[in-house]
Amino acid sequence: MDEKCGVVGVSLSDRAAARPLYYALYALQHRGQESAGIITHDGFQQHSHVEMGLVGDAFDPDDIAELNGSNGIGHVRYPTAGSVDTACAQPFSVSFKSGSLGLSHNGNLVNAGALRDELAGMGHAFTSDGDTEVIAHDLARNLLDADLVTAVEETMATVHGSYSLAVMHDDRVLGLRDPQGNRPLCLGELDDGYVLASESAAIDALNGELIRDVEPGELIVLNPDGTGYESHRLTDPDNTARCFFEHVYFARPDSTVDGKLVYEARRELGRGLWAENGIDTDVVMPVPDSGRAFASGYAEAANEDGGSVEFAEGLMKNRYVGRTFIMPSQDERERAVRLKLNPIKSTVEGKTVTLIDDSIVRGTTSTQLVELLHDVGAAEVHLRIGSPPIVAPCYMGIDMASRDELIAAGKTVEEVREVIGADSLGYLSPASIADALDTAREDLCMGCVTGEYPYDIDGEETDRAVSRPVIGD
Ligand code: SF4
């Protein structure tokens, strides 16, 4: 499961935006590692630098120095819709009769195909196959005969799907969150301006203060001189569809998303896991790093209930095995878990163990870890997962897996347990997730664990045999 894109925008009173944008992108690096980019505007023209690779590799000091202007937007990308090349790297930048536009997008449109055909029929020429360019063209045509707020409102009525956007129209920076609020976006204040970002950790990195989340269906327009902002509620939907996986997995634990510190949310999910599926064992241990906050909440709740479980680090992570690590054969791939995670024998040997993680996608790592703990002498290995079984793909911009790759799709919990080889397996229920997030169940997207999505997805209801139906039209 890969996280999908981080966006940021800043407007400052009297200093270049490039360096703060660069720092903010560093803070959002976990949301995308494929490409990084910044666009600034100096009041006369746009300046752009977009490269493939990590933030630290994509910019050098000269690149930053050439990005003039005190207003700008930035993006880190993991590709969702569109090909993996520089044509789809963002921010997307283009000039129209209505002015220059820059767009940073986190999410995935479900009607991009139909909209692209319509715009192409009207003479719009596309340079990429990504859905962000579709939003840019739609906004540009609306800006021809409408003011900025009306044009954005018209685009919001046209594009359907998941989007949190940092947009720059000439030197004006905007933030826009889709009517269901599927992806996060927040607003912060700096000493000399304002910032919009996917996560509050990016505001912290600039020594700023989080003001609040951008509301679903809200447009924020920053003053280009860094003196303030306007808010426009363009829609006010009855229900939202916030991605619950932001709290479970994607967002940084030190970010506050939709009013809730992610670390605390994960601890509460761990407490819920104990309440629903607790089992007394000698040791409770996390899968590092993803299961740590869940395991801490779980162990705390177990001990409050009169237990005497030990919370211990039983698996050590090798932080130097990166995404580029190449394993030449299937056999070596299966052994690779030992390169990434190695057990501490004294924590495990002869003990009953509860191993805690945030989620199971394909089940490969879980299976290998359970086998590893048995191999080093664990008496029993019980697996507890801080989310419900993932049974369906995500169409809102998360690279989950196809249905036939998901271990829980079409299986009972007991059947999954058998495949993984654990002594017992317990997941967290959707109701407990909603409780832990202090949110009504109807205000969360849980498409990947229920198969019910907040948008119509062609093929989803009608043809369950298709492993990855085409999005939209
Ligand atoms: S389907 Fe799952 S991963 Fe995708 S937006 Fe909904 S909750 Fe998040």
Tag the structure with descriptive keywords.
single chain; 473 residues; alpha+beta; Glutamine Phosphoribosylpyrophosphate, subunit 1, domain 1; Rossmann fold; 2 domains; seven-stranded antiparallel β-sheet; six-stranded antiparallel β-sheet; 30% helix; 25% strand; elongated; binds iron/sulfur cluster; purine biosynthesis; PRTase-like; iron
What would a concise description of this structure say?
This protein is an alpha+beta fold and 473 residues long. It has two domains: 6-237, 4-Layer Sandwich (Glutamine Phosphoribosylpyrophosphate, subunit 1, domain 1); 264-438, Rossmann fold (3-Layer(aba) Sandwich), CATH 3.40.50.
Strand and helix map with partners:
Layout: E1 6-12, H1 18-27, E2 35-41, E3 46-52, H2 55-58, H3 61-66, E4 71-77, E5 92-96, E6 99-109, H4 112-121, H5 131-143, H6 148-158, E7 161-169, E8 172-177, E9 186-190, E10 193-197, H7 200-205, E11 209-213, E12 218-222, E13 229-233, E14 242-243, H8 245-250, E15 256-257, E16 260-261, H9 262-277, E17 283-286, H10 292-304, E18 310-311, E19 315-317, H11 330-335, H12 337-340, E20 341-343, H13 345-348, E21 352-357, H14 364-375, E22 380-385, H15 413-420, E23 424-426, H16 430-436, E24 444-445, H17 447-450
Helix pairs in contact: 4-5, 5-6, 9-10
Bound molecules: iron/sulfur cluster.
Iron/sulfur cluster (SF4) is lined by residues 182, 243-245, 394, 396, 398, 445-448.
Written overview of the protein:
The structure is a single chain. Helices cover 30% and strands 25% of the residues. The chain is built from 17 helices and 24 strands. The strands form six sheets. Strands 3-2-4-1-10-9-11 form a seven-stranded antiparallel beta sheet. Helix 4 packs across helix 5 and helix 5 packs across helix 6. It is elongated and about 70 Å long. The two termini are 25 Å apart. The C terminus is likely disordered. The site of iron/sulfur cluster has 11 residues, from helix 17.
